[in-house]
Structure formats: structure tokens, C-alpha cells
Amino acid sequence: MQLLINGRQHEVEHGDEPLVWVLRDELGLTGTHYGCGIGMCGCCTVLLAGRPARSCQITAAEVGDRPVVTLEGLAERDAAGEVVALHPVQEAFLETPLQCGWCLPGHVLCAVALLARDPAPDEAAIAEAAQPNLCRCGGYNTIKLAVARAAELARKA
Predict the structure, then answer these.
(1) For residue range 119-152, what is the model confidence (pLDDT) as tens digits?
(2) Would I find Ion transport among this entry's keywords (predicted)?
(3) Structural domain ending residue among the three candidates 73, 102, 120
């Protein structure tokens, strides 16, 4: 079956597998993390047709023709596939690093979705967008700062 992932068509063999395993094991896109396996932690979050989705809770076949964006798909790349510019959210999270980073795919992709619908979110909107994702290190204040910084960077771009 064909999936549109990060703007490119990919042939995948295991349509009945959870998307997280197809991305990681079949396509080598390890920016999508496996956490709890029950859709509670957010580590496996991807953007599915522009909306955050838990990739451990959807099979590859259920994706259908909807585009998927992973952490790897956010950066701007040249024709050879080399990164030429990071997404503003990626830049902001690099400026304000967290302790372990396992939760970051979920927080980054939820922030991307938030900024797509609200380029100047207030603190409450940022907290609401981050709420579905767990950070075992307790970096929620740093995460909120990073998302606010990402909004600032995106407005300057």
C-alpha cells in the first residue's frame, strides 16, 4: 500500500500494523517515539492531515490517502534531502532543551498544529495544546516557553 509521509509517497508492506511501527521499523523514521502503546502519553504523535494523531492507535491502512507528517518532515530540505532550515518549532525547542526529550515528538507536533491555526497563541492556548502529552521529566514550563518562542520565531520568518 502507498502512504504519503512527509510529502513523499512510500510503499509499505504492513498495513495492519500500528503506524508507529511502520514509521519506525519499515521506513526508519525514528523521530516518532513509542511510549505507552495506548494513546495516553503522546510520544508517538504525528500530524495526520494537519491534526495531531497518536500513531500507536491507528494502523497504516487506516491512514488511507491522508498525508502524514513526522518530526523528520518539519525541516526544509534541499533536492538531495539535506536539511537547509529547521521549522521554527524545532529551532525553539533546540534553544530551550528538555531533560530527556522522549516526549518531544508529541509536544513539537502539537505545537506545529497549534501555530498553524493560531500564530499568536496565549499562555492558555499553549497549555491546552500541550496538555494531551506527558513529560515524565516535568518540563512543562520549559515546553510552554519553547512554544511561545516558536510563535515568535514564526512571526519573524
Answers:
(1) 999 999 999 999 999 999 999 999 999 999 999 9
(2) no
(3) 73
CA distance 43 to 107: 8
Q: Is residue 78 part of a domain?
A: no
**87: nearest Cα among 15, 18, 5, 6:** 6
CB 55 within 8 A of CB 45: yes
Judged on CB neighbours under 10 Å (0-12, 13-18, 19+), 48 is buried
State the cell numbers at 132. Answer: 494531551
The CATH number of residue 13's host domain is 3.10.20.30
**How many Cα neighbours within 13 Å face the side chain of 98?**
25
Instruction: List the alpha helices (DSSP H) in 1-157.
Output: 19-21, 60-63, 88-95, 104-117, 123-130, 140-156
Q: How many domains does the chain have?
A: 2
Q: Residue 141 has which C-alpha cell?
A: 514550563
For 84, residues 6+ apart whose C-beta sits below 8 A from its C-beta are: 75, 76, 77, 78
Cell 519553547 locates to 146
> Who's near 64: CB < 8 A, 6+ residues apart?
none
